[in-house]
Amino acid sequence: MNTISVYNQTVDNPQIPVQKMELAARNIEKALLTDSNAPRLIDLMNINPQTGSTASGLTDQDYPILSNMPLTMNNMNQIKCVNNVPLPPEIVDHFTHVQCHCMMGLFAEISRAWLTVDSDIYVWTYEENNDLAYFDGINETILCVGLVKPKPGVFHAFIKYLLVLTTAVDIIVLGVTFTEGGSGPMGEIQLIPDPVFTIPTDGVTISTIAGTSGGRLFLGTKEGCLYEISYQAESGWFGKRCKKVNLSTSALSFLVPSFLNAALSEEDGICQISVDNSRHILYTLTEKGSIEVCDLGEKGNSFSRITKISQTTLVNQAMNTVKTLDSQNFRPIVGITALEAYESGSINLVAVSQTGVRFYMSVASLSNLQPNQRPYTLTLVHVRLPPGYSANVTVRPRAVHMCHYRDRNLILISTVNEKDVLWCMSSDLFPFSQSFMEAYNTVNLDGPALAIAEVRHDIHLYSNTTQEAPPMVVRQHAEARISMPVDLLKQILKESRGLDSEALKTFFLIQKEDQASATSLILASLDSDDNVEVAEYATRAFFMFGREPRVTPVNPTNIFSGSSMFSPNIISTPAPHQYQQNLYPQSPSLSQTLSPHQTSFEMSSPFTFSSRHNGICLYFARIVRLIWHRICVERVCMDGKTVTNQSTITSEDCIYILNNLTALRNFLMHNTQLSTVSNALANPPSCMYNNTSMNASRVNHTLQDAQLEERVSLDSLKSFVVLCCQIIGLWRILCEHQFHSLIGALPENQQQILQNTTFQDLILLRQDICSILIMTLINSYLGDNASVDSISSKLREVCPHLYRTEDAAFSKANEILKATRTIQNIDEREEMLFSALQLCKSIAPNINLSEICREFTALRAYKAVIELCLHCGQKIDPDKIAENYYNSDNNTADQEGFNYYQKRMKIYKQVLNMLDCLYVEQSKNQAPNIIQDRYYTTTQAILLDGLDQSHVGSEMQQVMNDILDSPDQILHMALYEWMVTKNMASDLIKIGKPSLETYLKHTTTQHPNNIIVMDLLWKFYESNGNHTSAAKMLSTLASRTG
Asked: Which candidate, 317, 377, 318, 370, places its Cα nearest to that of 344?
């Protein structure tokens, strides 16, 4: 069997002490809990089922003005224009040919802009202003454009998106592909000229297009109907491959003539469709402000109309909530946005009016705001007024005609004096505030805005989640998106050039030191050529405002002080406990491994750690947040038949996490003053890593005690970051090597362990699993007859603590032994075996001895087994303490000698296992008596080859003679003991070695009732001419046997 095992080192072990890992893990858990206590969106709204919907935006603190903050923060903007990109010159030339209609928009999901000129459409990259694609295969004027994802399995894999173009006559769907090596972020775009299908409009005018993440395609019309293009994969292009389904008509509508139906209904065209892909709910907005809710089913594969609320009804509800304003402040509705489950569990939709008022709505009633329910109504929950309704702000948005909302950030485009102004309102600056606070600012645009879109980079770790996520400042490390505090700090640092400016002081005052320190770390640890200067400024601010640890009275609110709770000053009432548990359930395995006093978050401590320490804890916790309590492996059925074990994170996830972890690790390594401990305390005792590392009985703690306590904690964090980098790096390698096959090769019990192990447990408790996974990976290379050099080198580079130099050498030795099996030439086999033996001896005793000895035995390299075991014995016991113990008459108190003797005997057990194999083989072939004249002379060869089965006894004799020729007395004793157990007494007494007498006398002394050994002893004396001693032993035997 071609398998190896990575040796679990016990000598020169570089592993991180358990106490250090536990201390670091406790700090991470506390930081995670701190971030989990951030208030949810619905908590900020103070919803009360008895009093109904609520309102905000009327007080000064709802929109604090940054320029009026203490110590001034002039010219600090949360949004600004970064770049103006003109239209490609090829398109400008075509404007002179416009005859009827021109539209423009954005496909942010593929980093493209688009423009239609009559019946032609152009698509190009809006950042580089290149990769222009052009389609002119339509004869009619294009009226509506949309880009959607296709259903999986319907089209060829190279079709990544569907471009939907509608005219007055047809709905044309084109396939969109990308080629590698293009200048765009996704490669060069190509529009397949032949439409994948074309459907007649049947006289309706398409006004809006939307798709779901599952590939469903919806169309809204100016006649007020919602359609779905139902398409599927079929063997041919003919037949009913796709069809247009009217979802706004009932099953009995065919009984009413269409002209009568049109006459009786009031036309109210659909102007917007918004889809919640996480909860599978679709919303439509009409030109007259009505909002309809449609349920797509729990799995997103059905459709049912739930309810429709008119603009008048919504405005009346808002007036009942804000009684001081009239209806003109709430109408008309200009846009809607469906909220994903991670944005809010209970809030489902945000509608925006022309005056900038937001209406937060739920698909459940106020008395039953449980998260993620199936829709059954549409209820106004909260009214948020824009800036301008409080005393401190006089300017308010007017004539809003475009909006975009996501994740507590709102962008409005309003028109003032025929010029467009962009408004930005965001709560990112106040993520832990208990009130609904938002910062805002405006940007004057150079021209009219035709479209607005957010550049999103969705991360796999957040996909398909139904849990409400913490604020953006917490999870920005898991998304390719930087929160406002980071942008704001970067702007401050650039303008102040890292000096102790008033604006920088104010930033740390607003954010509070711990949160601001974590924000500084993002910039300080960012490794890029264009960030060198900012990183230096951020590092300076990190140390300048990070405070120092201090001795404080008992304060149960600082979780980073030993084991007590930490809570930045901007955190007040925690979120409900149920929310904390749902968001991040505690892993039972960690709490089971720590003693009760170690896991308690409520014990007091006499120290308050610095903001530098707390910021590092927060930053690290936010990097690993999404995987910390995530199960490592899940069983997935990919084809509907076979169930395989798949990693819950992808190699891309690992890369993203590793980039952040590596940046933090490099920062900690470069700034060694963070955890430098004096020489006297370079190796603090294990008690230093307990929660109560300082003697609890002491009362007069000093500043030096607090500094030492923090340095010990920072030292553990630094080591823990290094370990996390290596384990996540290993996981990335596994994901790149057919993960399901590697896990499938494990025994069933180990697969179940992985299915119930979180990444937290893998890092803290289950490094043995990591070793097993490395072993399985190496075995996969050996099984494919591939060299292990490349993968060994990669493992040594990525995870040197898990895969040491000894492991790499051991893997290479196994590769050589496996290759030896196919070699027929004796000399070549001898050379390869010698090479493998030298590799094994170079790493002894840190080697899986039993595994390698089995391989040598299978290749009949018996001398290699003897040499390797002797070498390991010498390495373990160079001073021959075991021999002294064995030869001592009174050794009962010599515990050290006994331990060395046991270690040596454990090593030599591999030699005895080899002898067992030979003995069984001899018994099967009924070989003659073992002890006879030597069949072979002693040579330096490793192999005992060339013997046929009839000479297996001679082969065994040669092996035993090689053992006896060695000077190792303990190995001799092991051989004699083995021969006694095999009833080889007659062969044993023919051995003329002095060590045999030592063995017999020692055994007789230790076991005076062992008649067999005493009988052997007098026979040994007799055969060696010592008749006197033989007579004495016979006399002793005679007296015992009566």
From this structure: 370
User: What is the pLDDT at residue 534?
Assistant: 87
Backbone φ, ψ for residue 255 (5° rounding): -75, -20
Burial 813-843 (b: 16+ CB within 10 A, else e): bbbbbbebeeeeeeeebbebbbebbebbbeb
716 burial (CB, 10 Å; 0-12 / 13-18 / 19+) is buried
pLDDT value for 339:
95
CA atoms lying within 13 Å on the CB side of residue 187 = 10
Distance between CA atoms of 915 and 909, rounded to whole angstroms? 10
As given in the structure block, the two tokens for residue 645 are: 């074990």
Q: In sequence order, which residues have a C-beta less than 8 Å from that of residue 592 and are 6 or more positions away? A: none
Residue 394 has which token pair? 């006089």
**Which residues touch 276 (CB under 8 Å, ≥6 apart)?**
282, 283, 338, 339, 340, 341, 348
d(CA 230, CA 217): 7
Q: How many residues does the chain have?
A: 1042
Question: Which token pair is 892?
Answer: 């009962």
Q: Give whole-number Cα distances, 425 to 288, 404, 410, 437, 439, in Å.
A: 26, 11, 5, 10, 6
DSSP 613: H
Give CA–CA dist 1004/1019, Å, rounded. 14
CB count in 10 Å sphere of residue 44: 20
Helix, strand, coil tally for the chain in percent (to 5): 45, 15, 40
Q: Which residues of the chain have pLDDT under 70?
A: 1-16, 66-77, 95-99, 181-185, 235-240, 250-266, 457-465, 477-483, 529, 553-605, 638-640, 672-699, 925-953, 1007-1008, 1010, 1023-1025, 1030, 1040-1042
Other Cβ atoms within 10 Å of 537 Cβ, number: 23
Residue 444's CB is within 10 A of a number of other CB atoms, namely 10
pLDDT at 77: 67
* d(C-alpha 417, C-alpha 694), whole Å: 68
d(CA 867, CA 640): 54
- Tell me what pLDDT residue 11 has: 34
The 10s digit of each residue's pLDDT in 363-402 is 999 888 888 899 999 999 999 999 988 887 788 999 999 9
Q: Are 633 and 755 a contacting pair, CB within 8 Å? A: yes
- Which residues are CB-neighbours of 535 under 8 A, at least 6 positions away? 523, 524, 525, 526, 527
For residue 553, the 8-state DSSP code is S
H or E stretch covering 52: none
How many CB atoms are located within 10 Å of the residue 553 CB?
7
Which has the closest alpha carbon to 71: 450, 443, 545? 545
Distance CA 203, CA 223 (A): 10
Q: Could you give the CA distance from residue 567 to residue 33 in angstroms, rounded to a whole number? A: 10
55 strand-pairing partners: 383
Q: Which residues pair with 406 in a beta bridge?
A: 409
Q: Is the dihedral of CA 1004, 1009, 1012, 1015 positive or negative?
A: positive
- φ/ψ of 699, rounded to 5, equals -110, -40
The whole-angstrom separation of Cα 440 and Cα 356 is: 13
Extract the tokens encoding 861. Answer: 């390299």
Question: Whole-model pTM?
Answer: 0.74
Cis peptide before 193 (omega within 30 of 0): no
Q: Which two tokens stand for residue 474?
A: 């917490």
Amino acid letter for position 327: S
Token pair of 204 as six digits = 């309706």
Burial per residue of 855-880, b for 16 or more beta-carbon CB atoms within 10 angstroms, e otherwise: bbbebbbbbbbbbbbbbbbeebbeeb
Q: State how beta strands 379-384 and 54-56 pair.
A: parallel
According to DSSP, the β-strands at 439-444 and 419-426 are: antiparallel
Joined together, the tokens standing for residue 587 give: 């892993």
Which tokens in the block code for residue 602? 């409520």
d(CA 575, CA 247) in angstroms, rounded, equals: 41
